[in-house]
Amino acid sequence: MADSSSPSLTPSAMGRVSGWLTHWGISPLAFDDTLSLINPLLTVTRLHARVVAKHAETPGATTLVLQAGSAFRGLQPGQFILFSVVIDGVRHRRAYSPRSIGGHQNRFAITVQRQPGGLMSNHLNQHVKVGDIIEIDQAGGAFTLPAAAPTQVLLMAGGSGITPCMAMLEHLQRSKAATRPTLIYFARGLEDRIFARALDDMAKRWPQFTYVAIDSVANTANVPGSTAQQQVLDTALLEQTVPQWRQMPAYCCGPAPLMDAARQLWLDAGIGAQLHLEAFAPAKPSGDTHAVHTVQMERAHQTRSFSAPGDQTILIAGETAGLSMKHGCRQGICHECTCRLRSGSVRDLTSGARIDGEGQPIRLCVSAAMSDLDLESLN
Predict the structure, then answer these.
(1) What's the pLDDT score for residue 27?
(2) Residue from 273, 272, 267, 277 nearest 349 by CA
(3) Please, which residues have CB within 8 angstroms of residue 146's CB and are 6 or more apart in sequence?
(4) How many Å apart are CA 373 and CA 254, to the nearest integer?
(5) Which residues of 322-359 are buried (b: 16+ CB within 10 A; e: fewer)?
(6) Sign of the alpha-carbon dihedral angle for 280, 282, 288, 294
(7) Confidence of residue 340 (pLDDT cuts 50, 70, 90)
(8) Which phi and psi angles does 260 have, rounded to 5°?
């Protein structure tokens, strides 16, 4: 059932209104401000969603159910939505993986796990309440199921990386697809296992679904108690759990060590193209702390220089130097910090690949300098 508070204008009608406003010399943003006095969800340019429910999933994770306006174009399971929130006068943007609620196009839920020092994650857990309005973007991202439902699919998750995987599972179960999914889910323990009860119920009610819950932090960086005795993602686990893993599409979302392990396993097996990866937290460089490189960046016909240590992303290095750096999600998703690499070399922290100059695009938030750099901002 559609939410009665959701405006009735369609996305195409919103687009026509935006075109008319531009033709008449009226700022769509100013028009949005006026419309928001009537209904915050009735906007032409900016998208908003209202928080209609909030509940705890674990001691450190909260689910928010949101109702978007009719300009929202819906989502595919596994995609992300960028959320924008003003905290202490500063606008912050982060990406979260939504799940459709009851199949409705405009209603969805996100589950946010607190991150140590995380401004957005702690704000959404502690301060956002039912009735609040949050600015959002349209859904995006390629971490999605194939257009034709596969016969089998393997999902691997760690911690809050379960959220896009859960969206896929709910979609497959709801659509009654013949797909046989397998989920391998790493968490510290039952108390920290997001959707624990829902996943247990799903495994009982859905014969095609294989669910493997593993209590282990061996795939998580810098966690006290992580030992060699704890289960890791390796060939032995895959062979035991899903012997046909080499013949099916695979999706992995979670901490960097988990995704690094999956990436290497699939590369070693010669099937890297079958693996899809999605990061849920900003990438962290592991380069030499003593290696410091000089970065020159041109933006709006002005060139600024700063130093970038090997153990920092270029974005953080620039901010540490006091520069105002164009950025959005800080997760390598929104591409607002994209620059052209004119000369030098960087490490892409999402893929581990080395990228050399000659006009290659790089994202500052997920790149670390490997030499002196000459950059041109593209935003």
Answers:
(1) 52
(2) 277
(3) 249
(4) 30
(5) ebebbbbbbbbbbebbbbbbbebbbbbbbeeeebebee
(6) positive
(7) very high
(8) -60, -40
Task: Give Cβ neighbours of residue 70 (< 8 Å, ≥ 6 apart).
Answer: 6, 7, 8, 9, 10, 11, 14, 41, 106
- Where do we find the tokens 């999600």? 329
- Name which of 189, 192, 155 is nearest 173 in CA terms: 155
Instruction: Please answer whether residues 109 and 55 qualify as being in contact, where contact means their C-beta atoms are separated by less than 8 angstroms.
Output: no
- pLDDT level of residue 40 (50, 70, 90 thresholds): low
| 96-106 per-position pLDDT tens digit | 999 999 767 79
Tokens of 285: 């460089």
Paired tokens of 184: 């391998």
> Residue 187 and residue 32: Cα distance in Å, rounded?
43
pLDDT digits (tens, 9 = 90+) for 187-209: 999 999 999 999 999 999 999 99
Buried b (16+ CB within 10 A) or exposed e, 208-218: ebbbbbbebbb
Counting residues of the chain whose pLDDT is more than 90, the rounded percentage is 61
